[in-house]
């Protein structure tokens, strides 16, 4: 349960102001069909995070406990620094023409936007830390949905009220604490 809850909280925090959250807003404004967008986000996140979690689980088997402790500690601390760098959405991140429909466009755009993103890297690190692939993937996916689904449904009204900088600082502190704990335990 700890792996699930920590993964959910960390990804929900990491996702605030993230490029994929901005992509959710753009898709919602462009297509105005929330259900296919949310379903596309869910499927893309499940696939992406399942792969990232598998990498994290593999890392735990490949590295010894001492090396793993250092890799995790440094990774969490690096994630803390990365949290403080705001994301921007590139103009090319969404398809010009919805060739695959709203669901397909969202699925492809989200999957590609998540490649190498903070939340994907966090999923790898969390899966390595907790050695609980299913709980981590379920938690990171729920965290993504908690951060992105409301943006699709409520759009700009939410983004104007959320103090993104404060959320990034809290997220960075959580990653920093996890990093220090990994290094000293």
UniProtKB/TrEMBL annotation:
Keywords, sorted A to Z: Membrane, Transmembrane, Transmembrane helix
Transmembrane segments: 37-61, 67-85, 133-154, 166-184
Family: Belongs to the GDT1 family.
Domain of life: Bacteria
Protein name, per record: GDT1 family protein
Subcellular location: Membrane
Main location (coarse class): membrane
One Pfam family hit: GDT1
Record's bilayer topology term: Multi-pass membrane protein
């Amino acid at each position: 349960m700890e792996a699930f809850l920590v993964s959910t909280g960390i990804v929900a925090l990491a996702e605030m102001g993230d490029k994929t959250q901005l992509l959710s807003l753009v898709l919602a404004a462009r297509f105005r069909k929330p259900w296919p967008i949310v379903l596309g986000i869910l499927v893309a996140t499940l696939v992406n995070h399942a792969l990232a979690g598998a990498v994290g689980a593999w890392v735990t088997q490949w590295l010894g406990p001492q090396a793993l402790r250092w890799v995790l500690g440094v990774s969490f601390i690096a994630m803390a620094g990365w949290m403080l760098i705001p994301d921007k959405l590139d103009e090319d991140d969404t398809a010009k023409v919805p060739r695959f429909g709203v669901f397909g466009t969202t699925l492809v755009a989200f999957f590609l936007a998540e490649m190498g993103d903070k939340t994907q890297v966090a999923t790898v690190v969390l899966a390595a830390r907790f050695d609980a692939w299913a709980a981590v993937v379920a938690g990171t996916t729920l965290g993504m949905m908690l951060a992105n689904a409301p943006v699709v449904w409520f759009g700009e009204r939410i983004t104007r009220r959320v103090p993104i900088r404060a959320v990034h600082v809290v997220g960075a502190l959580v990653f920093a604490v996890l990093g220090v704990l990994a290094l000293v335990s």
